[in-house]
Amino acid sequence: MTSFRLPPCDDPVRPAEVPGIRIALDGRTVEGVDGQSIAGVILGSGILAWRTTSKNARPRGVFCGIGVCFDCLVEVNGARDVRACQRRARDGDVVTTQYDELPVRVRAAPFEEVPDDRA
Ligand code: FES
Q1: What separation in Å is there between the alpha carbon of 15 and the centre of ligand 1?
Q2: Ligand 1: does its nearest atom lie under 6 Å from the Cβ of 68?
Q3: Can you give the residue ranges of every domain in the chain?
Q4: What's the longest Cα–Cα distance across the chain?
Q5: CATH 3.90.249.10 fits 8-97, yes or no
Q6: Across the strands, what pairs with 97?
Q7: Do β-strands 59-61 and 49-52 pair in parallel, antiparallel, or remain unpaired?
């Protein structure tokens, strides 16, 4: 399987033409087809990773593709934390990659030992 769209003329099934759409990804125009998810449009353009982890700046894009892992988060039309694999792309969407610092860690209360009185 490939993330790149097969041109209809090369597809043995000969599907009907699907209208094209354009989204803006960090100010750059990316083209896809109607019905694709935002992640599908981005992957179809050859971009495999569009955010980095907060801790070690590791690249992330689509991992599960079914809305479970939250690795594909983007900002869409000003709305943060949108899972790109779950959101259908609409013509004219403005998509921004997002990066967040980890929140300051709150130290948990020390574990209180409970005496073992079973003996
Ligand atoms: S790829 Fe896992 S939630 Fe989108």
Answers
A1: 28
A2: yes
A3: 8-97
A4: 79
A5: no
A6: 74
A7: antiparallel
Q: Quick one: pLDDT band at residue 114, thresholds 50, 70, 90?
A: low
What 47-55 contacts at long range (C-beta under 8 Å, 24+ apart), as own/partner pairs, is 50/25, 50/74, 50/84, 50/97, 51/97, 51/98, 51/99, 52/99, 54/99, 54/100, 54/101, 54/102, 55/102
- The reply to whether ligand 1 has any atom less than 6 angstroms from the CB of 65 is yes
Proportion of the chain above pLDDT 70, given as a percent: 83
Residue nearest to atom 3 of ligand 1 (CA): 67
Measured in angstroms, how far is the CA atom of residue 10 from the centroid of ligand 1?
A: 30
**pLDDT grade, residue 93 (50/70/90)?**
very high
For 8-51, write each residue's pLDDT tens digit: 777 777 777 889 999 999 999 999 999 999 999 999 999 999 99
Q: Higher-confidence residue: 78 or 101?
A: 78
Residue (of 54, 15, 11, 56) closest to 34 by Cα position: 15
| Residue 102 confidence (pLDDT) above 80 | no
Query: How many angstroms is it from 14 CA to the middle of ligand 1?
Result: 30
